């Protein structure tokens, strides 16, 4: 399967009990297109940092997931990728009380050996929580 086909399969089989970071955090794939992916996660008390808000690692994981999957959606069969670099900027904290966060990622450039993508996380009111860029190594 191509990357796009794999991601569409994942989205269709969301309820399957396959171990993954998505399952661990409760991330759901909501949109998959060539070069663009969206996912959501609902905040919970287990996401707490010492200040009592969502840990930045949860936001970074959502960003890494949507951007990496945006790259993956452009790849042919038998080709994978790995993250080389991830740059995250946090804009605001998020409460732990069941707020929905939406991550959106899209490709900027996909070459033979590397790809670049951008992403952002919005809260349920459309306010920016964080944004990021990534560089991925493409593995044939």
Q: Structural class given helices, strands, pairing?
A: alpha+beta
Question: Could you say which overall geometry the principal axes of the C-alpha atoms support?
Answer: globular
Helix content: 10-25%
Low-confidence stretches: none
CATH topology: Thiol Ester Dehydrase, Chain A
Number of discrete domains = 1
> Quick one: how many beta strands?
6
Largest sheet: 6 strands, antiparallel
The CATH architecture designation is Roll
Strand order of the largest sheet: 1-2-4-5-6-3
Rg over CA atoms: 15 Å
Order of helices and strands: HHEEHEEEE
Oligomeric status? single chain
User: What is the CATH superfamily classification?
Assistant: Hotdog Thioesterase
CATH class placement: Alpha Beta
Strand content: 35-45%
The overall pLDDT, averaged over residues, is: 95
Distance between the termini: 14 Å
Number of helices: 3
Strand-helix topology:
Blueprint: H1 3-12, H2 21-25, E1 28-33, E2 36-42, H3 56-72, E3 80-90, E4 100-110, E5 114-122, E6 128-139
Antiparallel strand pairs: 1-2, 2-4, 3-6, 4-5, 5-6
Write a structural description.
By secondary structure, this protein is of the alpha+beta class. The protein has a single domain (3-139), classed as Hotdog Thioesterase (Thiol Ester Dehydrase, Chain A, Roll), CATH 3.10.129. It is 23% helix and 40% strand. The protein is built from three helices and six strands, in the order H-H-E-E-H-E-E-E-E. A six-stranded antiparallel beta sheet has the order 1-2-4-5-6-3. The radius of gyration is 15 Å and the shape is globular. The model has no long low-confidence stretch (mean pLDDT 95). InterPro entries: ACOT13, HotDog_dom_sf, PAAI_dom, Thioestr_dom. This is Thioesterase. Pfam families: 4HBT. Keywords: Hydrolase. GO terms for molecular function: fatty acyl-CoA hydrolase activity.
